């Protein structure tokens, strides 16, 4: 009987103690340690459920347990990668001191101090403020490496190839992992290109955020990861990065979409951007007919994202096997006015000087 109740997760002793370093209850429904937040068993008494329903439930439970087991093992593997003396609680970037939200995969010599100090121009990392001060006196960098592809006032966007500037991109990924829960890319940056957003002052181009993109995406993803650092949030820079990713896709001659799955916050931001872009284009349209394909080609937004957005706005009707867009001007203006209540910083196309890189045109990188 003891063997039948044993949890399949390595490290779980069926009493709710999965791992001392994690200290949480087991997430497998088949395990006696599975409890809700109040400590009570989550599954009700199923003795009176018909047999055929119990068989279906068993199939569902097995699938759920397999998924939970994979998640558990991934989390345990991540914790094993972290050194036991991990102490990082803050990162200093220029004049900003930021509290970290999540743990990042760092070398042992960097993980044993409470504060990490970054050079905001070359992203060199130091454990002591004095070491950063000495480095700053000799560092000749005043902006990210790569090519400047966008400049509007003091705001610039730099295209950084992960193959040519591997150390910089790896350091950027480790820094981003402090603020993104599911950020996993640290190695293998050669397959990505990074677009780094900065704001210039008398010292140099200070880091705001970035988005990364696969050089050759089989699913036409135009954005893999997006981050605006906490000291620059709520200033519209996230929408600016999203808008730039779509404008670059249009210059490539392709229709793009962000990499799935999207987080809740990411989906909310994209849904606001899609809503504004589509409503603006529908109001500008002078003809009587416009299709989802036309909207996709003109905005660079994937057809699936257009359909889901128009459905959420109740502007898409399915009748006799076809979808029709309800483009009543007064209704569109009402929905657009509600969307404009959110501050959204968008790119100026005249300030974008991007051109296809060698890896897109077929040349040698």
From TrEMBL:
GO terms for molecular function: chromatin binding; histone H3 acetyltransferase activity; histone H4 acetyltransferase activity; transcription coregulator activity; zinc ion binding. Transmembrane segments: none annotated. GO terms for biological process: regulation of transcription by RNA polymerase II. It catalyses: L-lysyl-[protein] + acetyl-CoA = N(6)-acetyl-L-lysyl-[protein] + CoA + H(+). It is found in: Nucleus. Residues 83-356 form the MYST-type HAT domain. The active site is at residue 259. Keywords: Acetylation, Chromatin regulator, Metal-binding, Nucleus, Transcription, Transcription regulation, Transferase, Zinc, Zinc-finger. Pfam families: MOZ_SAS (PF01853), zf-C2HC (PF01530), zf-MYST (PF17772). GO terms for cellular component: histone H3-K14 acetyltransferase complex. It is an enzyme of class 2 (transferase). Its EC number is 2.3.1.48. Belongs to the MYST (SAS/MOZ) family. This is Histone acetyltransferase. It comes from Macrostomum lignano.
């Amino acid at each position: 009987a003891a063997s039948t109740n044993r949890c399949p997760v390595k490290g779980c002793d069926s009493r709710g103690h999965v791992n001392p370093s994690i200290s949480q209850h087991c997430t497998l429904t088949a395990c006696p340690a599975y409890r809700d937040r109040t400590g009570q068993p989550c599954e009700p008494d199923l003795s009176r459920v018909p047999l055929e329903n119990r068989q279906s439930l068993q199939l569902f439970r097995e699938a759920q347990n397999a998924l939970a087991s994979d998640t558990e093992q991934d989390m345990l593997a991540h914790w094993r990668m972290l050194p036991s003396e991990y102490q990082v609680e803050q990162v200093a970037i220029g004049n900003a001191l930021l509290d970290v939200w999540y743990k990042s995969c760092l070398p042992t010599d960097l993980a044993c101090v409470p504060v990490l100090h970054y050079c905001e121009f070359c992203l060199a990392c130091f454990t002591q403020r004095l070491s950063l001060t000495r480095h700053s006196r000799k560092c000749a960098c005043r902006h990210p490496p790569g090519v400047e592809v966008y400049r509007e006032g003091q705001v610039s966007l730099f295209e950084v190839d992960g193959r040519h500037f591997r150390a910089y991109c790896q350091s950027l990924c480790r820094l981003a992992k402090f603020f993104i829960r599911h950020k996993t890319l640290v190695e293998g940056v050669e397959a990505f290109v990074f677009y780094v957003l900065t704001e210039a002052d008398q010292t140099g181009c200070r880091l705001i955020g970035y988005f990364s993109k696969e050089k050759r995406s089989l699913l036409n993803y135009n954005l893999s990861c997006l981050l605006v650092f906490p000291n620059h949030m709520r200033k519209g820079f996230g929408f600016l990065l999203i808008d730039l990713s779509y404008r670059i896709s249009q210059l490539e001659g392709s229709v793009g979409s962000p990499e799935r799955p999207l987080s809740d916050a990411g989906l909310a931001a994209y849904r606001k951007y899609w809503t504004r872009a589509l409503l603006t284009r529908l109001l500008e349209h002078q003809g009587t007919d416009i299709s989802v394909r036309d909207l996709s080609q003109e905005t660079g937004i994937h057809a699936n994202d257009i359909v889901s957005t128009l459905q959420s706005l109740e502007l898409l009707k399915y009748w006799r096997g076809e979808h029709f867009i309800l483009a009543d001007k007064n209704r569109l203006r009402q929905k657009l006015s509600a969307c404009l209540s959110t501050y959204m910083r968008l790119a100026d196309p005249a300030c974008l000087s991007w051109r296809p890189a060698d890896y897109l045109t077929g040349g040698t990188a």
